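Researcher: Please translate sequence to structure tokens.
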Amino acid sequence: MRKVAFAPIVDSASKILLLGTMPGEESLKKLQYYGHKQNQFWKILFTLYNEPLASDYEKQVAFLYEKRIALWDVLQSCEGKGSLDSNIKNEIPNDFKSFFAEYPQIKYVFFTSRKAESFYKKYVGFELDKIFQALPSPSPAYAAMKFDDKVDRWKLLLLDA
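Model: Translation complete:
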């Protein structure tokens, strides 16, 4: 079965783009980015900005807009069983040329996994007018790093705040 990613969360004020690979099974069911309750994505972001974690998805999205953070996935669609990036096959990337033409103010691109970075490199390539960096994955499958260490590495998002 083919999985299709969500539209980006972005506006003309966005300066930072966070890129995942493809929404996991639970996120696709809920129609929410990082919808799996074990995923640390939202907890990391709210911790970074010293704000209490909002459990309501609409408030989480509003938080992204407030912090000038855009959110999208590298892949537009793919096949694969389960939620692991390692199971992805027959992938099709999103149209970043059009995206960046519409949102040229985005200066920083952060990948929320090494696989997202790998797919981006393979299909898009790195433009010289943007800063690219991979962050530790917020996925529960990436348990090699403690939560506080992940938050510490994600502090790069605060550089332009």
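Researcher: Any highlights?
Model: The chain has one domain: 2-160.
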